[in-house]
Amino acid sequence: MFGEQQRFVLLLIAPAALLLLLFQVVPIVIGANASFRDWALYNPKKTWIGFDHYVAVITDPAFLYVVLPNTFLFMVLSVAGALVAGLALALLLNRPFRGQKLVQTILLVPLMVAPVIAAIMIRWIFNDQFGIVNVVLEAIGLEGQPWLVQRWSAFGIILLTDIWLWTPWFTLLLLAGLQSLPKEPFEAAAIDGTTTWRVFRYLTLPMLRPVIVVCVVIRAIDAFRTFDIVWTLTGGGPGRSTELFSLYAYVHAFLNLDLGRGSAAAIIGGLVILVIGVVLYRLVDRIAKA
Amino acid sequence: MAMVNRPQFLPWLPPIGRKTLFALAVAFICFAFAFPVLWLILTSLRPESGVYYVHRGTEFTLASFAEVLSDERIVAAFLNSALISTLATVFSLLVTVSSGYMLSRFTGPASRLWFGTIYVFRCVPYISWVLPLYFVTQSWGLYDTYTGLLLPHIAVHICFFSWLMKGFFDGIDPSMEYAAMIDGCTRWGAFIRVAVPSALPAISALAVLCWLFTWNEFLFALILTGNRVPVITVVMAQFVTEMGLRWNLMAATAVMALLPAFLIALFGQKYVIRGLRI
């Protein structure tokens, strides 16, 4: 039926394609189908109701004014924070100094920590009664805060946890990028006595552009679907004020037991991120070029 | 060009001041990065009552670890997590190495289509396919089973790892494979005996990453398992709500969950750093 080469090519991707089909494509199609039906977990009538769930989601004030802004704010701040911190650390590790290997190992620690564990650690550190942060604050005469039950402090802590978790990724990939840059331009700049800032601004940054673009796009798409740390740190609370998109879909499907509405939210989120993925790639590329 | 000085950090400071400042800054950064983990370890070593004033007191004990290890559900969760991570790593590599090789070595409509597909599916948020996967696994009888958790864990890495593997193979000169085929190797022989061994550093890097990702994954297990297949991340998240006041036990469990990941990462660090540099 096929030539020898085509058979080889198809066989190489067949297992991957089959798994992708069964465990991603099929569920997405079934989820799309469920999103058009009255499908409560306690009473799965499965009657066709058209776009009702979609209308319910996009007219839900909680989704429009809390979940969506939270998700975008989180995505932008988390990626920006981890990029700046990761780039700074990569530049630090790129110059030789004593103990550099040890420092590198310590800085990569968050890579190994599960988001759930990170969230548990941070929850304990910011515990309102016994957490070390409040103990220290009270020791120096300031008032301890109930960090995780106030909207913006809780949001800030979630953000901080995420940046802590993902900075090493940027460091690792940007360091690899830095070390593969050609040496000659930097040597020429050093002979001309160029300042550190100008070397960074006009040599390092432009030459690192491709690596930065790839890191930012990958990370932004991942930040959009953040679930673990929010679920473990605040569960979306206080109230629903720190809910992100993944939590919104999960809560509707498995806590409110409305699979139809949860699926509709999941599909809407998927479409949003697809659009963002394309736009982001173009935008970041253009900004980086300027 | 060894004579050329690198541009200096804060050039107006005298060298001694610069060095001290640099060392202090580095020490502070390391402390900030390691602090949460150190604090967790310290908490896990405190006795039941000492946990509320971790910062003072000098009694330390391993009792929390003993208590955690006597809990059958936690031990089962550790074993399940280890088993699933290991199996997922093996199968995921089998599947993605060949798919990445195809993307790198062949051009044409099939290759472009496959690349577009994995690029799009890489963007799809987990919740958008794991949520409906909940009723797919139920109707296939895979809900709350090893297989039902393992297969999605293999599927999730296909897109990202195929993409990384393509990059790795792109960096390897294919002429060795052509030479092997001229000498009578089949295409499969050239792939398995020539291409795969030369990509071994990259494959090791992916193995380390895959094991860590699976060990640390939470959402899949939360949605796709009930009581029969407890895994460590889910058990710990339940801890937070069920035993919210017993922080010494929680910390001990978390430290034990960190340990295998640390060992794997420490052992594999050089592979990851080398592998990602290609």
UniProtKB/TrEMBL annotation, chain A:
Pfam families listed in its UniProt record: BPD_transp_1
Domain of life: Bacteria
Segments forming a coiled coil: none
Cellular compartments per GO CC: plasma membrane
UniProt keyword annotations, A-Z: Cell membrane, Membrane, Transmembrane, Transmembrane helix, Transport
Record-linked InterPro entries: MetI-like, MetI-like_sf
Protein name: ABC transporter permease
TrEMBL record, chain B:
CDD domains membership: TM_PBP2
Cellular compartments annotated: Cell membrane
Name of this chain's protein: Maltose/maltodextrin transport system permease protein MalG
TM region(s), chain numbering: 21-42, 74-101, 113-137, 149-169, 190-214, 220-240, 247-268
Keyword Cell membrane: yes
Limits of the ABC transmembrane type-1 domain: 78-268
Family, per entry: Belongs to the binding-protein-dependent transport system permease family. MalFG subfamily.
GO biological process, one term: transmembrane transport
Keywords: Cell membrane, Membrane, Sugar transport, Transmembrane, Transmembrane helix, Transport
Matching Pfam families: BPD_transp_1
Highest taxon of source: Bacteria
Organism from which the protein derives: Bradyrhizobium lablabi
Membrane disposition: Multi-pass membrane protein
Record's function text: Part of the ABC transporter complex MalEFGK involved in maltose/maltodextrin import. Probably responsible for the translocation of the substrate across the membrane.
